[in-house]
Amino acid sequence: MGLKRQKIAKKTISFYKYNFSFRQPFQILIDGTFCQMALKNKIQIKEQMPKYLMGEVQLCTTNCALKELETLGKELYGARIILQKFQSRRCAHLKDPVPASECLLSMLGETNPHNYFVATQDHTVTAGVKKIPGVPLLYIILNTIVLDKPCQTSLDHVKAVSLGEMVSVAQQQSIRSLKEDKGIAQKDGERRGKKRKRKQSNPNPLSCLKKKKKGGPTPPRNTEQGEKKKRDKNKKQKTEGGDNLPAPVVTNA
Fold it and tell me: Which family is annotated (predicted)?
């Protein structure tokens, strides 16, 4: 294995680790075309893949990829034997299998949430993978496994995140897990279906008080009667004052 090729692979893996939160064991999603090319070039996938990616790996496939090899007959019997040794990941086409290329792309979704590597020789899968950000692509060329450089879609996504225009996949996952820990996150159906209950509160104590009867307008004071009483009081005081005066002295002429 060339030192230069491994150095390039290490740089590419670091890109996906830093920007898309890839961690060991790396999950490698493999189809029949990759196994057929490995068999033709005498490549031991289980031995060489961990060495090339410099870490622990999990080799996996889908039920649709196995079914496709079965239908293609004896020509791909060796590739089917190799593919059967890998873990089979559950896809959405158990009852009605679809072509392996369609199945693999459906496993990736729009953002590759499970952080799959894809190992294929299928041009349809390769073209589809390059439209999804954060999907490392593996293929065989000149008897060696090659990790393709990040596609333009992944580079544009990382640039948008760095400029603050988008939220990275890792940040989305951390926000989602934080909401779940706090009990904030709810399913869309529950959020739309359930009405918000009004919180029961104690009645306002002021509203429980009896309303005071509104009294009629205060009658105006009878000013004439008041003045009459005042005059009578003054007259009384004068008469009392007059009785206390000393009697006049009468002189004999």
Answer: Belongs to the UTP23/FCF1 family. UTP23 subfamily.
